[in-house]
Design brief:
The complex is a heterodimer of chains A (about 100) and B (about 170). By secondary structure, chain A is mainly alpha-helical. Chain A is built from three helices and no strands. Chain B has two domains: about 1-80, NADH-ubiquinone/plastoquinone oxidoreductase chain 6, subunit NuoJ (Four Helix Bundle (Hemerythrin (Met), subunit A)), CATH 1.20.120.1200; about 130-170. In chain B, helix 2 runs antiparallel to helix 3 (about 50-75). The chains are: A mainly alpha (about 100), B mainly alpha (about 170).
């Protein structure tokens, strides 16, 4: 319990968001939308971390989330730069049309 | 009351995340995700993390998603078009993986009942924590991690510059 919020609600919301993120990452073809789904999964993990941190009465959860956000920013900048470079070479970011490394 | 607001915000985050995944237009997807992240920021405040909520709005909704919008418009990516190539196996396996994963999560959740691990000294916080306490922790116990992240961000900056640069640029 955090205030009057049961921890189970936090975990259910986090699990639902993570599942939606997995669905997006597996079923979409647009690289941008796959990337957005990955960001969503990170946020679902953050939600669970903050829920447990608050329920256990520590600051550790918030510290981890702080680092996750910093790393997400780095990841987004590099990932988007890769898309720009990819688009320059192949004129598409549809992941099914980028199959140089497929057998 | 807190519980109602939390449930409403979490539901809104989930609904807009669903819209993000279901939409075909990347611009609409990004905008749906912005709304979802704002709703998540509300839940963060209710989970006694106002500083993280501010970071969520400034860094995620403000910086990262605007960067996404910028790249979408730079690349002029249109909505995903059906290209006539059905991929039934891919779609089927993806859906199965999602259902299995969600089922595993739910089963795990049911088995644990959402209970906390035993932690004798755990005292649930009831008031908003002081952000100064967070800063003190960050700059004492976690100073090394903090500096490592600064190096990581610098590396990402240089990497993004090298990747997105034109190859024959002077």
């Amino acid at each position: 319990m955090i205030g009057s919020i049961p921890l189970s609600h936090v975990l259910l919301a986090s699990g639902a968001l993570f599942s939606i993120g997995i669905a997006g990452a597996l079923l979409r073809r647009n690289a941008i939308q796959i990337f957005l789904s990955i960001e969503l999964m990170m946020n679902a993990a953050n939600l669970a971390l903050l829920g447990y941190g608050a329920a256990l009465g520590t600051h550790q959860g918030q510290i981890i989330v702080f680092f996750v956000i910093a790393i997400a920013a780095a990841e987004a900048s590099v990932g988007l730069a890769i898309f720009v470079a990819l688009f320059r070479h192949t004129e598409t970011i549809d992941v099914n049309k980028i199959h140089l490394l497929k057998w | 009351m807190e519980r109602l607001i939390f449930d409403a915000a979490a539901l809104m985050a989930i609904v807009f995340a669903g819209l993000m995944v279901a939409g075909r237009d990347p611009v609409k997807s990004v905008l749906a995700l912005v709304v979802s992240f704002f709703a998540l920021a509300v839940t963060y405040v209710l989970l006694l993390a106002p500083f993280i909520a501010a970071l969520q709005i400034i860094v995620y909704a403000g910086a990262i998603l605007v960067l996404f919008l910028f790249v979408i418009m730079l690349l002029n990516v249109g909505p995903e078009r059906p290209d006539g190539m059905r991929r039934p196996i891919q779609t089927f396996l993806g859906s199965v993986a999602v259902v299995v994963f969600a089922g595993l999560l739910l089963g795990m959740f049911k088995a644990s009942g959402g209970h906390l691990p035993a932690q004798p000294e755990a005292v649930a916080m009831d008031t908003l924590p002081d952000p100064a306490a967070l800063a003190r922790l960050l700059f004492s116990d976690y100073l090394l991690h903090f500096e490592a992240v600064s190096v990581l961000l610098l590396a990402a900056l240089v990497g993004a510059f090298v990747l997105a640069r034109r190859e024959n640029a002077p």
